[in-house]
Design brief:
The chain contains six helices and eleven strands. The protein has about 375 residues and is of the alpha+beta class. β4 and β5 form a beta hairpin. The longest helix is centred in the last third of the chain and has 89 residues.
Length: about 375
């Protein structure tokens, strides 16, 4: 019959192994969470970029329609003013009627002027009060007098009539003989474009700017909070200039503070740019993930606590195993010593018995 082998506790402690496994598990979980957070943030950035691009496209189309309607009104005004006899009061009155009609047909138009070749206003929506205005030093007048036939787009200027900031669009009036006959000018209200942009409720504190030729600022919404603020960021102007030189009508650029998406407004020499604040973008993402982060951190803390409790119990079990092993070793040592002592006593007892038997045998033989 086979005897059962004694059960001996494992000599390799389990607590360090459990600790390494726990730390490795936590490390893998943290890496996965970091990777998931990074992926989520990148998706958030892509969504913001996509939304900003869509808004810039929408604003560019809206601006192009406004400029197109204004340019058509200018061409209509140029056709009328180029053939009218300004010495005839009835003809002059017909031009003024056309000017007023254009003003009321297009609600975003602020003022309409017809300027003569000497720079004096001949007809306008302001009536006779504008006849004293001298526009000969205005940039648009000088450009048209020098022979420009393209649509002129000014930067924001102060209206000569009432001092209101306006954007001027102008076209040259040519006489039937081809000589310079004056300038048709329309100033339109930028507040309509601003209200259109504000009504979109773009997230992340977005900014809209409309930039004219040579980087001139036409519109900004919202306006700069401080007068020292640069209305148009230099990296944005550089990116627009590069895109124009490469024949591109749209593009994106990221500066230190904003992601900009810009797009040309149709065929007109203006560019619409929409900027999304990077800080607002990060703040919005943090606000979105904070509740989930709290839940995840709580779960990790609970898992870490369970692992710590398991590690403590494993340590106690290892201690018990060490004590049991020490006790077993001590017991085996004592059993070995007792066995050795018993074997010695047994040997001596056998020797004594052998001597006693030999002595008795000798006495019996002698008797």
């Amino acid at each position: 019959m086979n005897e059962e082998e004694p059960i001996t506790p494992s000599r390799r402690p389990f607590a360090p192994v459990l600790l390494r496994i726990s730390l490795a598990t936590l490390a893998v979980l943290l890496i996965l969470l970091a990777a998931g957070g990074w992926w989520g943030f990148q998706r958030h950035v892509v969504d913001v970029h996509s939304g900003t691009d869509s808004v810039s496209r929408l604003l560019a189309n809206q601006t192009a329609r406004s400029f197109e309607a204004t340019d058509l009104a200018l061409l209509r005004l140029v056709d009328v003013a180029s053939v009218v006899d300004w010495s005839d009061p009835l003809s002059t009155q017909s031009v003024e009627s056309e000017v007023v009609s254009l003003r009321f047909r297009l609600p975003f138009i602020s003022r309409v002027f017809v300027v003569g070749p000497q720079g004096r206003v001949r007809a306008s929506t302001l009536g006779e009060t504008a006849h004293s205005i001298d526009a000969s030093q205005r940039e648009y007048f000088q450009a048209m007098r020098d022979g420009s036939t393209d649509l002129f787009v000014s930067s924001r200027v102060q209206s000569l009539a009432d001092g209101e900031p306006v954007v001027l669009l102008a076209r040259r009036i040519g006489r039937p003989d081809g000589s310079f006959g004056g300038v048709a000018v329309i100033s339109f209200l930028t507040k309509d474009l601003k209200q259109f942009f504000s009504g979109l409720s773009v997230r992340y504190a977005s900014v809209m700017v409309i930039i004219g030729p040579d980087g001139k600022l036409l519109v900004r919404e919202p306006e700069s909070k401080q007068a020292t603020d640069d209305p148009v960021e230099r990296p944005l102007l550089t990116a627009i200039s590069i895109s124009q030189s490469e024949g591109l009508s749209w593009g994106q650029v990221e500066t230190e503070t904003r992601y900009w998406s810009y797009r040309r407004a149709g065929t007109f020499p203006v560019t619409v740019a929409v900027g999304a604040s990077l800080e607002a973008m990060r703040t919005a993402w943090l606000g979105y993930v904070t509740p989930y982060a709290g839940f995840v951190l709580s779960a990790l803390a609970a898992l870490g606590t369970l692992m710590y409790v398991a590690y403590r119990h494993a340590g106690l079990e290892d201690a018990y195993r060490r004590r049991l092993a020490e006790t077993n070793t001590e017991l085996e040592r004592r059993v070995g010593e007792r066995t050795s002592d018993l074997e010695g006593l047994n040997t001596r007892l056998r020797g004594a018995l052998w001597k006693s038997a030999t002595s008795c045998s000798a006495r019996s033989t002698t008797g």
